[in-house]
Amino acid sequence: MAKGKEHMNLAFIGHVDHGKSTMVGHLLLQSGAIAEQQLSDGEDKFRFVMDKLSEERERGVTIDLAHARFDTPKYEFTIVDCPGHRDFVKNMITGASQADAAVLVVAVDDGVMPQTKEHVFLARTLGINQLIIGINKMDLVKYSEEKFNELKEEVSDLIKTVAYKPKDINFIPLSAFEGDNITKKSDNTPWYKGPSLVEALDEFKAPEKPTNLPLRVPVQDVYSITGVGTVPVGRVETGVMKKGDNVIFEPPGASGEVKSIEMHHDMLEKAEPGDNVGFNVRGVGKNDIRRGDVAGHTDNAPTVAKEFTAQIVVLQHPGVITVGYTPVFHCHTAQVACTFLELQKKLDPATGQVKEENPDFLKTGDVAFVVVKPTKPMVIEKIKDIPHMGRFAIRDMGQTVASGMCIDLVPAK
Questions:
Q1: What angle do CA 274, 279, 283 make, to 5 degrees?
Q2: d(CA 392, CA 37)
Q3: Local confidence pLDDT in tens for the 413 residues of the chain
Q4: Is residue 30 exposed (0-12), middle (13-18) or buried (19+ Cβ within 10 Å)?
Q5: Does residue 119 contact residue 99 with C-beta atoms inside 8 Å?
C-alpha cells in the first residue's frame, strides 16, 4: 500500500462572528474538497457547508469527514471543529481529534474579543503548539496595511501571555469572503510578503508518532471470530505492538501473548500509533475484556487511577458544579462516572493565574483544578507522561459540560 501524505488535524478557532465558517468553506472549495454547486447562493454561501455538518451532528449522525477534509501539496488535513461554536472545545478533547495545529481567526474590524482570548488560552491548555493567525475581513478596511499591523500587535501581545512566540507565527491578511490570500497571494495586499494560508499550512511540522511512549491501545469493541478467537479492536494511541508481545488489559488485569494483528484485513507484524487494529491475545476470552479497557505491555501496564487531579474547563452547565457532583467522564474509549471530591482552585481563563482557592462551586466559563474519584476502576494517564491518554470530556444531561486533562493521580494498585 503506497504511503499517502502525512495527515494532520486542524482546528479553526476564534470569535463566533469573525468569519471562520466562510474561511473553511472557501478553503474546502479552493482546494477542491467541495464543488461550487454544493454552495448555496448569496452572501452566506459558505456557511451552509459547515452548518450542514453541525445539523448532522445535532441529529447524532456520524459526519462523513471527507466533507471537512482537504489536501494541500504536502499534507492531508482534517478539520476537527465545525467553526463558530463552543463545540470546538468538545471535539478537541475527545482523544482522536486532538488538533495538531490551529488557525486563529480574528476580524480586523472587531479586533480581539473575549472569545478570542478564551480560545487562545484553551488552545494552549489543550496542547496545540502550532498556530497561524488569520486576520480576516481585510476587504472591510480596504486592505489597509496600517489596520493589519495594529491588530497584529494586539494579537501578538495576547498570544505572548500564554507563551506562543509571535516571531514563529504567520500572521496573514485574509478576506474569507473575497478569497484573498487563501490559496494564493492576493493583488489586494501588495504590501504583504508572507505566505498564503495554504502555503502557511504546509509550513507546519507533522506531529511525531509517539512510538517511543509506552504502548496504549484503548479497546473500542471485542469480537469473537471463528478460527481466531477473541479479537479486541482499537486504535494504537502510543507505542508499538508487535506479534509475540506480552500484553495486559487494565482494569481487568487479563493478559497474554499477541498471536496476530490485522488492519483492514491485512496481517501485520507490528502496529504503530494511528493504526486501527484487531488483535488476538492468547488466553484472553471475550468475557474478560470490554470497551474502555486499555492494552499495554505487561512490563509497563496502563495506569488504573483510584483518584486523580485534573485541570478542567466548564464549557456549559445550567447550574453549578459542587463537591459530590458525579457526571460521566469520557476518556479514550471509557465512559466512567466520577465524583468530584475537591475543588482546589479556580483560574482566570484569560491569564491562567489562580483567582480563588477552594471555591464553593464552579460555573460555565470557569477553569479549575479539581480532585475526582472514578466510581469504578478506570485507566487514565498523567498528561505529561502520555498526553494521548490524559484528556477527557465530562458529559451530563446529554451535553458536554466540561473538558480537561489529568495532572496527577493516585494509582489503584
A1: 145
A2: 39
A3: 334 678 788 888 877 676 777 787 778 777 765 555 555 454 455 555 555 545 544 444 333 333 467 889 999 887 765 444 455 555 554 444 467 899 999 999 988 887 787 778 777 766 788 999 999 999 999 999 999 999 999 999 988 877 899 999 999 999 988 889 998 999 999 999 999 999 999 999 988 889 999 999 999 889 988 888 899 998 899 999 999 999 999 999 999 999 999 987 789 999 998 788 999 999 999 999 999 999 999 999 999 999 999 998 887 788 999 999 999 998 888 999 999 999 999 987 666 789 999 999 999 888 899 999 999 999 999 999 998 899 888 888 877 788 888 999 999 97
A4: middle
A5: no
Beta-sheet pairing, 304-314 with 378-379: antiparallel
In the numeric block, which cell numbers belong to residue 187?
Answer: 493583488
Cell 480574528 -> residue: 106
**Grid cell in block for residue 189:** 495586499
Q: Going by C-beta distance under 8 Å and a sequence separation of 6 or more, which residues neighbour residue 37?
A: none
C-alpha distance from residue 77 to each of 46, 124, 197, 367 (Å):
19, 20, 13, 30
Cβ contacts of 389 within 8 Å, gap of 6 or more: 216, 218, 237, 238, 294, 302, 331, 332, 379, 380, 381
Q: How far is CA 292 from CA 82, 96, 221, 289, 360, in A?
A: 27, 14, 9, 9, 32
Measured CA to CA, the distance from residue 121 to residue 123 in angstroms comes to 6
**Alpha-carbon distance 171 to 165, whole Å?**
12
Residue in the block written with cell 504546509 = 202
Phi, psi of 82 (to 5 degrees): -90, 115
Is residue 91 exposed (0-12), middle (13-18) or buried (19+ Cβ within 10 Å)? buried
Q: What nine digits make up the cell of 216?
A: 496504549
Contact between 393 and 94 (Cβ < 8 Å): yes
- Cell digits for 388? 494521548
**3-class DSSP state of 260:** strand
User: Can you give the C-alpha Rg of the chain in angstroms?
Assistant: 23
